[in-house]
Amino acid sequence: MKKITPPKVRLLASGIELEAKQMQAKAGDLLPKHLANIESILFIHEGEATLHIHGEGKLLKSGDAFIIPAEITHQIEGITDFKGVHFMPKNIKFQFFN
Asked: What strands, in cross-sheet order, belong to the sheet with 8-14?
């Protein structure tokens, strides 16, 4: 079993209802399994990661975006060092499982 590694997170922008956070991790990092009560958007701007969702692995490369549905458990794994931007409502609530 791989060790769970939290991503490095940095707030990029914050408005009245939305915020954008940069997340980054290294190749081989397995981020915590979680879900959120509201959908959000993950955009990869550097590197590659696998999004484990719906029982399969979705490869996300630089320039790819994915809408993460509400109430769906998912997990991200770094294929290479990667940076992404997570766009979300400020009132989002997360539930972590690892």
From this structure: 8-14, 18-25, 82-89, 40-46, 65-68
Is the pTM value of this prediction over 0.90? yes
Determine the Cα–Cα distance for residues 78 and 47; give it in Å rounded to an integer.
8
**Quick one: pLDDT at residue 98?**
67
Is pLDDT of 37 > 80? yes
Superfamily holding 8-88: Jelly Rolls (2.60.120.10)
Integer distance in angstroms from the first to the last C-alpha of the chain?
Answer: 12
The mean pLDDT of 7-30, rounded to a whole number, is 97
Contact 84, 43 (CB under 8 A): yes
d(CA 33, CA 98): 6
Whether the predicted pLDDT of 1 surpasses 70: no
